[in-house]
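Quick question about two entries, pasted in order.
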Amino acid sequence: MFKRIPAHIGVIPDGNRRWALREGMDKKEGYQKGLPPGFRLFEMLVEQGVKEATFYGFTRDNNKRAVEQRNAFTQACIDAVKLLENRSANLLVIGNEKSVAFPEELKPYANKRMVFREGGININFLVNYDWEWDLKTALSNGGKIASADIPRVDLLIRWGGRRRLSGFLPVQSVYADFYVVDDYWPDFEDKHFLDALAWYQDCDVTLGG
């Protein structure tokens, strides 16, 4: 269907709390509602032949939120990884595992590639991710940033209408084409992703040249 498929797609699944408030729920209830869209998008990524995708889980700055929200998005990240174990994928969880905010249940997956079932698409998951931690790691790691195993992002898609990176892989996103979906992440539709791919067909990828 599409002639040009981005090798690596970044995903910022924003708008969970705003969606919950709109639906008359507590903010914390929006995070679990983001799991089904995530796995529908996973299926579509595989169908389209995308080789790699990076999903934003939560950041160090997100830990400033109320404790019930922190517990909710942390649990949603744990649940996402446990569900992914039943699918064919290669998972890399990237985040500061030495922080108390990093979930204990995900430490076995932290900062190393794990192969689930038959492998296939590379899925990177940013959990308790901090762009400053990522870059500063290079000072004690032979010049390599913490996320060095993640390649350059070709297409970055953000749900929820915000027009900002929010610290998402600043090195890899330096030449990413940025597509914004105004709908909240729990309102995900197949059309959102297909429209992003259609838009990408006309992007002029020069990498500064």
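Here is the second entry:
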Amino acid sequence: MVVMKIIGITGGVGSGKSALLGYIKEKYSCRIILADEAAHRVKEPGQPCYDKLVGLLSADILSEDGTINKNRMAAKIFGSKELLQKVNQIIHPAVRELIFREIELAASEGNIKFFFIEAALLIEGGYLKIVDEMWYIYAGEEVRRQRLKGMRGYSDEKIDSIMQSQLREDEFRKYCTVEIDNSGSLEAAFRQIDARLGECV
């Protein structure tokens, strides 16, 4: 039976977490769960958060097919810290529970070496208690800005707003035991990953 290592992946917006996880998925015996995807799953009809969110925000947030519409939900919450807090109190515990179940399932199957959890808010969300390692994917602010403008078409105002809501570099470093510098080429970052995961095998 393979001993599975649980690794958290975090970092600021535009740091390139998705690209690095794509490489890890292809090369290593692992399972990867993205907190954003988990949050989408728990909002589906019949899932834990669906009725609670509709009860809180009304049926106005639903699409014609009865699913929760991300944009309508965002519009309903916009500008209300109180509503945002209530929504987070519904979604975050359900996401954690889903992730815990996935970890238990993977551990019981015993056939993968690494289980990766990716989220911008891993540290704030209390995941330090369940991971064996926390990785900080670093990229300089200017590099991240250029990526967000070029790849996502974000405005400076939107980038400023997102960056101000996230942890500072020194806070990420305070809680993460491994740092992968993704300011340069992807190949350089891949080599850092190989060096780290090679040690863990």
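Reply: Strands lie at 5-10, 30-34, 114-118, 133-138, 178-181. DSSP finds nine helices and five strands in the chain. Hope that helps.
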